[in-house]
Write a structure and sequence with these properties.
- About 0% of the residues lie in helices and about 60% in strands.
- The chain has no helices and 11 strands.
- β4 and β5 form a beta hairpin.
């Protein structure tokens, strides 16, 4: 019903930058919230950034000032610009969306994840 496809991950040196993209497709009537979570090996999945339909944003404290979330509603895309990357940012990054379908059902959807590795 809904597919979220991430791209833009990779290997980067500490202090470097990456831009993640997430494309949403399917039977989407509207998207309330899009965002990013991450999961490092042996750790629980954690919130990175959320962007709500009213344009309010949430960031986890450790990425504030370094990461910026944005979205293009017309294209059903979300982006995460990550600057000043640190080794502790290494994780699989997952796109998330709170979606209402044309059937009027509403639910949470996840992408397959994209690996971000910060290492020298």
């Amino acid at each position: 019903q809904v597919q979220l496809v991430e791209s833009g991950g990779g290997l980067v040196q500490p202090g470097g930058s990456l831009r993640l993209s997430c494309a949403a497709s399917g039977s989407i009537f509207s998207i309330y919230t899009m965002g990013w979570y991450r999961q490092a090996p042996g750790k629980q999945r954690e919130l990175v950034a959320l962007l709500h339909s009213g344009d309010s944003k949430n960031y986890r404290d450790s990425v504030k000032g370094r990461f910026t979330i944005s979205r293009d509603n017309a294209k059903k895309m979300a982006y995460l610009q990550m600057n000043s990357l640190k080794p502790e940012d290494t994780a699989v990054y997952y796109c998330y969306a709170d979606v209402r379908l044309f059937s009027m059902q509403r639910g949470d959807y996840w992408g397959q994840g994209t690996q971000v590795t910060v290492s020298s």
